[in-house]
């Protein structure tokens, strides 16, 4: 069968970023002819600046500016030579002064991204292992990527989950010489700290453990001589720790710095550090400014600057504590994160603040999960107390207006960040524009209405839902039990605008992942069958395909009806606590739907193409062949018709227990040999219930020479005129030599013609094969909302392509 297409993570990021840009919250241009750090100009407005990463304001210090100008006058705009040959005259002085800040020899790099790319592949040896905090900075994760080509195992843990880290250490310690844990000292979005004391204790417990910290956001405003947050806790640098600081951001200049107590590592990176060897060195102006900043860091003045910033940071915390604004992490860092939940709320609030004279940054995917969008506010020495107080007052006003504008509330925001799990009570006294009712069984839905709307596809007519409810309840294994929820939205006049259903169940997190990922995970599941599995709340179910959402888009306010449905899904999410919410089987070209879901915290992901056959305007096989393309006609003749004499085709409405067991074994062969759409194995109860249900039948392929059943198609007869080949079973000893899969597709078309149905819902996967027999292929996508990015990112590390 053909491989599935898989979502391109970069495409998803671009789409989300583009949406943010269109909303005026990203990719803005600063304006004006002069900066002082206190203000920034954009969109024709002069704004108080609460978005800088220059927390101490040294980038505007006259001494740094003068040193940069003097360096240009003396040495030019750049020194175009590799440092491996010769460094320009200011470099030695800079290295000496920065070494004094840390009390250790240092290596200066062009920036932290290049620094990580140079250091990580050099210090992590073959035979080592790596564990990443899933919120560690992108530059670290990017530098780790080449290690996969060297077969270095790379694992990931949830953010600061040291219990998970210890489990990974235990897993890797017998096969890895050293185990590197990579994290940020201070995380750039929420401003929270790495648990350094606990990590240090782990290094004492596990001799193999090494720590690698990116502390660029902790630099200068913390620690002795401004050496950063990590050094403020560790005081001295143990041999098992590698530290990255920065000469940009708060330091006020440019470049980055690596510090280590391990002389061998230092010499190795110094002598040959990949990009450090061949890339250009820092410009004279940057080195001059960095020297001037280092002089400040080596004086008592740095402590006065730190104290001044600490007072302003503390004042902002005091101001926020008088409000109910959702501050995600409270500490003494100058990074503050106010959660908004949905992207559209964040975009709305950012623009409101701009209109009121304040600039802040938007925290957005992939830096945070999509539903954890918010405002990243930073405090610097440039900000005055009256401006901090003014920002708080304006924020406290505009925040709730932004919630109202985007049809959300504080409870929904708190839930998105796990801050408050109390269910919102419905206001039953107010007659809303739309009413969304939720039911737990298909028997509560009116059969005719269901079948005339959503039930016209696949296995999801009223009887099909009844069948699914019977099969996936009361089973021993958790993966074989679903909870069913049915949604009905009507307007004030009682007109039906939306109808849908969702299931809650245990999924494999790699269901839509590349085959290579699923194969690797299945090996691990031999020991732990529930490895990388979690509960998902999804439109539809594993066995259903098609339009799981009926939406009357002729209704003038259909978007509001959809909003009510999404609110009800969110209430259900609060109750069930799934790791993932999945809205599936949509047209990827539907921009209206895409915008609505993106703005409400969902990420678009590709699904396998859907296939449908509905061209029954033929009477003979010759006529059918003429309805195909010339290439497909050749395929029909050589790969299907020429094999027909080898088979007996039987249509069975009911079979014996022995036959059913054979069918089940054939299904399992397909399941085991086709991890492209990786689901749990279905229970035998499913096939037993099929065998007793008059709406199901089996197309059986028997090999004449030995009367062996070598293929079976499990087909559902939808009451509205669809024929649904929902599952397939094949004997792989014969499947390739006799083209069994193609024969089953063809026999399905012949049977559907005989039954005079309107269409065949061929379902997902193998679009290339289904197109050959005349099926129409339709692109499909889903919209994913995860509690965090952990599963998405950790599975990405298993990719082989």
Automatic annotation (TrEMBL):
Domain Aminotransferase class I/classII large: 48-386
Superkingdom, natural source: Bacteria
Pfam family for this entry, one: Aminotran_1_2
Signal peptide: none
Alphabetical UniProt keywords: Aminotransferase, Transferase
UniProt keyword Membrane present: no
Keyword Transferase: yes
Cofactors required: pyridoxal 5'-phosphate
Entry's Gene Ontology molecular function annotations: pyridoxal phosphate binding; transaminase activity
Protein's UniProt name: Aminotransferase class I/II
């Amino acid at each position: 069968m053909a491989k599935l297409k898989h979502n391109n993570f970069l495409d998803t990021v671009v789409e989300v970023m583009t949406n943010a840009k269109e909303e005026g919250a990203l990719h803005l241009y600063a304006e004006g002819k002069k900066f002082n750090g206190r203000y920034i100009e954009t969109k024709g407005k002069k704004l108080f600046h609460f978005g800088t990463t220059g927390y101490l304001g040294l980038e505007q210090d006259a001494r740094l500016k003068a040193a940069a100008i003097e360096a240009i006058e003396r040495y030019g705009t750049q020194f175009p030579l590799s440092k491996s040959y010769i460094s320009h005259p200011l470099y030695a002085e800079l290295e000496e002064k920065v070494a004094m800040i840390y009390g250790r020899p240092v290596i200066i790099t062009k920036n932290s991204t290049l620094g990580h790319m140079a250091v990580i592949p050099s210090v992590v040896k073959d035979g080592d292992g790596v564990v990443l905090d899933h919120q560690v900075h992108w530059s670290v994760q990017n530098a780790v990527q080449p290690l996969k080509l060297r077969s270095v195992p790379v694992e990931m843990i949830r953010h600061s989950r040291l219990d998970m880290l210890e489990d990974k250490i235990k897993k890797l310690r017998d096969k890895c010489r050293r185990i590197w844990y990579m994290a940020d000292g201070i995380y750039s979005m929420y401003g929270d700290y790495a648990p350094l004391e606990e990590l240090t204790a782990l290094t004492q417990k596990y001799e193999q453990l090494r720590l690698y910290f990116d502390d660029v956001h902790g630099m200068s405003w913390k620690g002795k001589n401004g050496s950063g947050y990590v050094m403020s806790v560790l005081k001295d640098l143990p041999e098992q720790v590698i530290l990255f600081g920065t000469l940009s951001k708060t330091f006020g200049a440019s470049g980055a710095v690596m510090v280590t107590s391990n002389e061998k590592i230092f010499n190795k990176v110094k002598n040959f550090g990949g990009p450090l060897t061949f890339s250009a060195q820092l410009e004279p102006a940057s080195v001059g400014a960095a020297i001037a900043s280092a002089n400040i860091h080596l004086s008592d003045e740095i402590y006065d600057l730190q104290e001044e910033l600490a007072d302003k940071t503390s004042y902002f915390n005091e101001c926020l504590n008088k409000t109910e604004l959702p501050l995600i992490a409270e500490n003494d860092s100058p990074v503050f994160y106010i959660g908004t939940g949905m992207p559209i709320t964040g975009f709305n609030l950012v623009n409101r603040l701009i209109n009121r004279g304040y600039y802040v940054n938007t925290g957005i995917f992939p830096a945070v999960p999509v539903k954890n969008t918010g405002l990243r506010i930073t405090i610097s020495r440039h900000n005055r107390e009256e401006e901090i107080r003014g920002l708080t007052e304006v924020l406290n006003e505009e925040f709730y207006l932004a919630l109202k504008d985007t049809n959300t509330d504080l409870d929904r925001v708190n839930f998105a960040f796990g801050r408050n799990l109390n269910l919102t009570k419905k206001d039953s006294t107010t007659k809303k524009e739309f009413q969304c009712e939720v039911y737990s069984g298909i028997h509560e839905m009116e059969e005719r209405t269901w079948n005339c709307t959503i039930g016209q596809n696949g296995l999801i007519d009223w009887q099909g839902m009844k069948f699914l409810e019977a099969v996936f309840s009361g089973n021993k294994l958790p993966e074989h039990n679903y909870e069913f929820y049915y949604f009905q939205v009507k307007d004030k006049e009682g007109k039906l605008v939306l109808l849908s259903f969702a299931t809650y169940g245990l999924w494999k997190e790699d269901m839509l992942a590349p085959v290579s990922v699923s194969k690797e995970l299945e090996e691990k599941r031999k020991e732990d069958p529930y490895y990388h599995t979690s509960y998902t709340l999804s439109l539809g179910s594993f066995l259903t395909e098609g339009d799981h959402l009926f939406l009357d888009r002729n209704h003038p306010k259909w978007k509001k009806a959809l909003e009510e449905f999404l609110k009800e899904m969110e209430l259900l999410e609060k109750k069930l606590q799934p790791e993932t919410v999945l809205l599936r089987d949509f047209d990827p070209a539907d921009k209206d739907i895409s915008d609505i879901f993106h703005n409400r915290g969902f990420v678009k992901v590709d699904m396998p193409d859907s296939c449908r056959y509905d061209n029954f305007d033929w009477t003979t096989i010759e006529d059918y062949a003429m309805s195909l393309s010339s290439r497909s006609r050749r395929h029909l003749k050589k790969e299907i018709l020429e094999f027909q004499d080898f088979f007996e085709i039987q249509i069975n409405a009911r079979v014996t227990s022995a036959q059913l067991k054979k069918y089940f074994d054939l299904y399992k062969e397909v399941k085991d040999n086709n991890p492209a759409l990786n689901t749990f194995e279905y229970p035998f109860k499913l096939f037993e219930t099929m065998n007793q249900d008059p709406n199901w039948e089996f197309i059986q392929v028997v090999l004449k020479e030995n009367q062996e059943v070598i293929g079976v198609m499990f087909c559902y007869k939808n009451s509205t005129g669809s024929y649904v080949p929902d599952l397939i079973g094949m004997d792989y000893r014969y499947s390739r030599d006799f083209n069994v899969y193609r024969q089953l597709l063809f026999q399905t078309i012949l049977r559907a013609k005989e039954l005079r149905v309107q269409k065949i819902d061929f379902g997902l996967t193998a679009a290339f094969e289904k197109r050959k027999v005349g099926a129409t292929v339709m692109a499909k996508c889903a919209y994913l909302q995860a509690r965090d990015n952990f599963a998405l990112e950790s599975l990405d590390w298993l990719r082989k392509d």
